[in-house]
């Protein structure tokens, strides 16, 4: 969770250098809960740290009654590992892209304006690719870890869908 937050701030800073000269977007951060802090590029976020502490306590409490070979603990480990690996992978992709554009400014020209709903839709489409891979893995290797990872991405689909519904409503309200 900490790596996710810090990489988000780092990506937002890097995006300002070259990327956002060509891609006009409303929010870099997709999660409405953190948009204000990321827009301000705040490295320290007390709300996020409190959530990290709560999640850590929850995982410790939950796992205290489980053994390493337990189906639930392996599934939870898969859920959290795949969830954060996919998030960190997206941040790594962004950071590498932004760094490439900094080093190769002539490789891009023009300007694209994307609505927040477009950004959320694109993020949703990326999850479907990972869902496909994890779904195949779950069919051929139905371990608790893989099933937990698959469930994490199903949850991400529903969370991003909820953000998308909220963003579409805000866009409709703004345009009327």
Summarize the topology.
Blueprint (H helix, E strand, L loop, with lengths): L1 H16 L1 H4 E3 L9 H5 L6 H19 L6 H33 L8 E3 L1 H25 L3 H32 L1
Parallel strand pairs: 1-2
> What sort of overall outline do the alpha carbons produce when their principal axes are compared?
globular
Reported for the largest beta sheet, the result is: 2 strands, parallel
Number of domains: 1
Spatial strand sequence of the major β-sheet: 1-2
- Based on helices, strands and strand pairing, what is the structural class? mainly alpha
Question: Which regions are unreliable across 5 or more consecutive residues at pLDDT < 50?
Answer: none
Radius of gyration: 18 Å
SSE succession: HHEHHHEHH
Describe the structure.
With 176 residues, the protein is mainly alpha-helical. The chain has one domain. Helix content is 76%, strand content 3%. The chain has 7 helices and 2 strands. A two-stranded parallel ribbon has the order 1-2. The protein starts with a helix and ends with a helix. The mean pLDDT is 89.
Features:
mainly alpha, single chain, 2 strands, 176 residues, two-stranded parallel sheet, 3% strand
Q: What's a quick, concise take on this entry?
A:
The chain is mostly helical and 176 residues long. The chain has helices at 2-17, 19-22, 35-39, 46-64, 71-103, 116-140, 144-175, and strands at 23-25, 112-114. The model has no long low-confidence stretch (mean pLDDT 89).
């Amino acid at each position: 969770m900490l790596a996710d937050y810090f990489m988000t701030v780092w990506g937002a800073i890097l995006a300002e250098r070259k990327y956002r000269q060509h891609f006009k977007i409303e929010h870099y951060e997709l999660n409405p809960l953190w948009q204000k802090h990321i827009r301000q590029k705040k490295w320290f976020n007390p709300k996020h740290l409190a959530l990290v502490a709560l999640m850590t306590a929850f995982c410790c409490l939950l796992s205290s009654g489980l053994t390493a070979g337990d189906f639930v603990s392996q599934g939870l480990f898969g859920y959290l590992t795949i969830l954060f690996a996919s998030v960190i992978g997206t941040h790594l992709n962004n950071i590498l892209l932004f760094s490439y554009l900094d080093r190769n400014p002539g490789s891009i020209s023009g300007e694209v304006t994307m609505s927040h709903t477009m950004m959320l839709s694109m993020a949703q489409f990326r999850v479907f690719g990972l869902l496909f891979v994890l779904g195949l893995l779950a069919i051929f290797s139905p371990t608790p870890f893989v099933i937990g990872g698959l469930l994490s991405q199903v949850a991400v689909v529903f969370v991003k869908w909820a953000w998308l519904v909220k963003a579409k409503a805000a866009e409709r309200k703004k345009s009327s």
